């Protein structure tokens, strides 16, 4: 057995080809589903492919998609972030208050993003250093932040429309449609490219996968596991914060219930896109295409005249279907 | 001159005395079998040599110089590499990614540092070839056999010019054919001048590759002799306590 290769050594080896990689890549199947639904819908209802509807769909899923990209990094490390919906709410409210109290648009954006990063930092530290369970930490944070959003203005909405020049600049920057595409969609594209790049081409990204694959092994090999964990919760909170600013600009006012229960849609998107809650697997594109699928189902049911109360059933079925698909793909591995 | 020398190493965890005044010596190019029953202190001793935690008493000397490790990375920098019992592999990453985990090769573009996939694949392929292992750098570790996984963990130790490799139960959980493969790997490392401490339960494996064998029982070293002068029967007696010391 020195230089000789045993026959079963060779037999259990499969050269994986590019098309096998594609077929084994969950986001590919979800993309296919999105395309198939779009084609079917274009026959069912001519309004589906209209510019207006396209604009609506893309903008609607951009909000969830941006957060799903951040959430994906958390889920790859085998964590979870339930506080993103509340983070969105507090960021929108604190930015609105900043502008409302006469500060500049830049100050409002800075305040919003700093609030988000601080929330992510606290989540990350409690999880990485105090070693509390991510589900519980972010569940607690969900409740704390939502309550602080109410405390901030005593639950009074803040409307940007009546504020003046800075509010107009804010809305111009974040709620426009350069080249006929809504700003949130451009932001989604940017976030997707940046995070996708980080995950694929940087040591930081590889360490995120390593922590989710085998935390103990990562630690023994000198991966800064604790810093990696803090970084993904900050990433998730940052994407929630960016979304908070975009939602604020789009609606023109901040309500204290902004983002409520969005965390569930965000997590559903990442799971549909192939992220594994046990950690180690997922991609930035997967989160985005998962969000796209949910939105296109919602929109199609609406246009097809299906009672809107049925939407949740269809979305739920797709979540179950996605997990099943994952199971089938991994059979025999 | 000994490559690695432990002098009077003790370790207690609270009231439990895991190691009591253990001396150990490793010469260049030597394979030392470290044996003992569960709880005899083998793992504790390995973790002290690997820098996972410091000893409560005693001294570690590397090439006649006293060293103090606080983290595994420090031991690694001094040329001590460890192959852990569970191999410390991430199943979701490729063989090459595992080999370079925590010390990735990067390309620099201004402030940006990106992973140099090509160089890591090439270097990992080269290491597997040196180990004569049929492991491909691009394959995911979760699809690999026990022997291939072992090769990945060993290739990792060959990234730098290490002098000592500590192997914790490398043959514990793999098939008979793969055991032969791993023992070959150990011989190849020895032929390249690397000193190895092989921690094992498996008597035949130790006698197949080790030059010398040390036996621990209840935290004390009870024997240290060349494998030629000893026998599996004697070592078994020493491990169980049927023979007090030798």
What does this structure look like?
With 333 residues, chain A is mostly helical. Chain A has a single domain, classed as Orthogonal Bundle (ABC transporter involved in vitamin B12 uptake, BtuC), CATH 1.10.3470. Chain A has 15 helices and two strands. In chain A, strands 1-2 form a two-stranded antiparallel ribbon. In chain B, α5 (146-157) packs parallel to α6 (176-191). The longest helix of chain B has 16 residues, at 176-191. Chain B has helices spanning 42-49, 72-77, 95-99, 117-130, 146-157, 176-191, 203-209, 232-240; strands spanning 4-13, 16-26, 31-36, 57-62, 65-67, 80-83, 106-109, 112-115, 164-168, 195-199, 212-217, 220-226. Classes of the chains: A mainly alpha (333), B alpha/beta (246). Chains A and B meet through α10 and α11 of A and α2, β8 and α6 of B.
Strand percentage of chain A: under 5%
Shape of chain A: globular
Shape designation of chain B: globular
- Sequence of strands across the biggest β-sheet of chain B: 6-9-10-3-11-12
**Portion of residues in helices of chain A?**
over 70%
Number of strands of chain A: 2
**Helix and strand sequence of chain A:** HHHHHHHEHHHHHEHHH
Uncertain segments of chain A: 1-14
Catalogue the unreliable spans of chain B: none
Roughly what is the average pLDDT of chain B, rounded to an integer?
87
Instruction: Give the class of chain A from helix and strand content and strand pairing.
Output: mainly alpha
User: Hey, roughly how much beta strand do the residues of chain B contain?
Assistant: 25-35%
Instruction: Provide the residue-averaged pLDDT of chain A.
Output: 87
Largest interface: A-B, 31 and 35 residues
Radius of gyration of chain B: 19 Å
What's the name of the CATH homologous superfamily of the largest domain in chain B?
P-loop containing nucleotide triphosphate hydrolases
User: Secondary-structure element sequence of chain B?
Assistant: EEEHEEHEHEEHHEHEHEEH
- For the record, the CATH class of the largest domain in chain B is Alpha Beta
């Amino acid at each position: 057995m020195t230089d000789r290769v045993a026959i079963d050594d060779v037999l259990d080896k499969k050269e994986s080809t590019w098309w096998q990689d594609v077929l084994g890549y969950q986001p590919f199947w979800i993309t296919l589903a999105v395309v198939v639904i779009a084609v079917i819908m274009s026959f069912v209802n001519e309004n589906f492919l209209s510019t207006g509807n396209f604009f609506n769909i893309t903008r609607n899923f951009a909000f969830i998609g941006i957060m799903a990209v951040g959430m994906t990094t958390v889920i790859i490390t085998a964590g979870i972030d339930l506080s993103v919906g509340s983070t969105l709410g507090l960021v929108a409210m604190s930015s609105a208050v900043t502008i409302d109290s006469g500060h500049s648009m830049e100050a409002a954006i800075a305040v919003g993003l700093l609030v988000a990063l601080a929330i992510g930092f606290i989540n990350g530290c409690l999880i990485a250093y105090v070693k509390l369970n991510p589900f519980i930490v972010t569940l607690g944070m969900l409740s704390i932040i939502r309550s602080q959003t109410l405390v901030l203005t005593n639950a009074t909405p803040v409307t940007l429309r009546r504020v003046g020049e800075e509010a107009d600049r804010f809305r111009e920057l974040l709620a426009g449609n350069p080249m006929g595409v809504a700003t949130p969609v451009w932001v989604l594209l940017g976030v997707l490219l940046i995070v996708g790049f980080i995950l694929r081409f940087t040591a930081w990204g590889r360490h995120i996968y390593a922590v989710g694959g085998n935390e103990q092994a990562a630690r023994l090999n000198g991966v800064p596991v604790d810093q990696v964990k803090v970084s993904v919760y900050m990433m998730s909170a940052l994407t929630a914060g960016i979304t908070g600013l975009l939602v604020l600009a789009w609606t023109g006012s901040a309500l204290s219930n902004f983002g409520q229960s969005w965390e569930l849609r965000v997590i559903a998107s990442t799971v549909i896109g192939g992220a594994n809650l046990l950690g180690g697997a997922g991609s930035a594109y997967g989160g985005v295409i998962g969000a796209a699928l949910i939105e296109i189902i919602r929109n199609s049911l609406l246009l097809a005249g299906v009672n809107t109360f049925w939407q949740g059933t269809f979305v739920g079925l797709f979540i179950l279907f996605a997990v099943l698909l994952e199971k089938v793909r991994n059979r025999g591995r | 001159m000994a490559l690695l020398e432990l002098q009077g190493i003790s370790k207690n965890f609270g009231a439990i005395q895991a190691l009591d005044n253990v001396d150990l010596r490793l010469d260049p190019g030597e394979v030392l079998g470290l044996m003992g029953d569960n709880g005899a202190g083998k793992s504790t001793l390995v973790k002290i040599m690997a820098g996972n935690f410091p000893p409560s008493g005693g001294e570690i000397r590397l090439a006649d110089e006293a060293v103090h490790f606080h983290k595994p990375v420090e031991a690694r920098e001094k040329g001590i590499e460890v192959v852990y019992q569970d191999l410390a592999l991430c199943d979701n990453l490729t063989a090459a990614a595992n080999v370079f985990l925590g010390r990735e090769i990067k390309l620099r573009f201004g402030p940006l540092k990106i992973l140099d996939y090509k160089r890591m694949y090439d270097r990992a392929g080269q290491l597997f070839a040196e180990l004569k292992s049929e492991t491909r750098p691009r394959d995911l570790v979760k699809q690999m056999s026990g022997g291939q996984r072992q090769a990945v963990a060993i290739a990792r130790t060959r990234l730098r010019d290490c002098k000592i490799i500590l192997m914790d139960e490398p043959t514990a959980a793999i098939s008979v054919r793969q055991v032969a493969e791993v023992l070959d790997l150990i011989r190849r490392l020895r032929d390249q001048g690397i000193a190895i401490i092989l921690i094992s339960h498996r008597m035949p494996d130790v006698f197949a590759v080790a030059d010398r064998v040390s036996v621990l029982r209840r935290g004390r070293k009870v024997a240290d002799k060349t494998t030629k002068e000893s026998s599996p029967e004697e070592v078994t007696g020493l491990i169980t306590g049927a023979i007090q010391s030798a």
